[in-house]
Design brief:
The relative contact order is 0.16. The termini are far apart. The protein folds into 2 domains: 20-175; 182-242, OB fold (Dihydrolipoamide Acetyltransferase, E2P). The chain is mainly β. The chain has one helix at 211-217; strands at 20-50, 56-70, 76-87, 92-101, 109-118, 121-129, 135-146, 150-157, 165-178, 182-192, 196-199, 202-205, 223-231, 234-242.
């Protein structure tokens, strides 16, 4: 069988974590689902034509009904309204339409699908609304198919040759906003070194690139105001104002 590949590219938001107060952001919740189904012909209408290169094209509009089972949103009576356009000379073609699964306790799952037909087998993609109205369904679909009789060995996701099936619904995740701890004090400098300063009981580290200038301008006993922030777990001086000694 000729292979058909479908790719779904999802955009993933990366949330950077830190110790902080979290606030919510809108996002999507994704979960895997899977189901199987069979459906037999309830009604069909077929017409044929011949192409200029001698190929016979069979166009069938059909309604097929049966049952599906698996994940809750993929369990219940299933109806597929289908148009198949098949080159019966080479036994290849295209099948598309809509499906509905009457899942219990909700609005049902409704999806449109398009699949490549090749020698009795379909592989394609179904997209639509899941049984939960806020959820979207993206399902790789496969089945054995005959326009005259219907679908057998149908799969949505799971071990489908085309791949998996997922539901995407509204959700929320937590992203972290960094909380900067700040402190300040005003009073006399009780201790001063090349690495730290203490004012009114508050001790803060002095950044190395500020140490020489600060020690040249201030001394123990000067009256100052200092502002500090928590950096890498340590109170660090960010600002100093006051009376400089002469």
């Amino acid at each position: 069988m000729r292979k058909l590949s479908f790719a779904i590219v999802a955009l993933v938001a990366l949330c950077t974590a830190s110790f902080a107060v979290a606030h919510g952001i809108g996002t999507n919740s994704v979960q895997a689902v899977a189901g199987t189904f069979t459906a037999t012909a309830a009604s069909t209408s077929t017409r044929t034509c011949t192409t200029t290169d001698g190929k016979t094209i069979v166009v069938t509009d059909g309604r097929y009904s049966g049952s599906a089972s698996g994940s809750p949103d993929l369990t219940g009576p299933i109806t597929l309204n289908t148009r198949s356009v098949i080159n019966s000379t080479d036994d290849i073609g295209l099948v598309n339409g809509r499906l509905k699964i009457d899942a219990a306790g909700g609005h049902g799952t409704n999806a449109s699908y398009t699949a490549v037909y090749d020698h009795g087998t379909l592989v394609g993609l179904a997209t639509g609304k899941a049984h939960n109205p806020s959820a979207r369904l993206f399902a790789n679909l496969s089945a054995s198919f005959s326009a005259a009789t219907g679908f057998t060995s149908g799969k949505l996701g799971g071990s489908t040759p085309g791949g998996s099936a997922i539901e995407v619904s509204n959700g929320q995740c937590k992203t972290n906003r960094v909380v900067r701890e700040k402190s300040e004090a005003r009073g006399t400098i009780s201790a001063l070194s090349t690495t730290s300063i203490t004012v009114a009981g508050l001790t803060c580290a002095i950044p190395s690139d500020k140490s020489a200038d600060l020690n040249a301008k201030f001394k123990t006993g000067d009256v100052v105001s200092i502002n500090c922030s928590l950096v890498s777990g340590q109170n660090t001086l960010t600002k100093i104002d006051g009376h400089k000694h002469h």
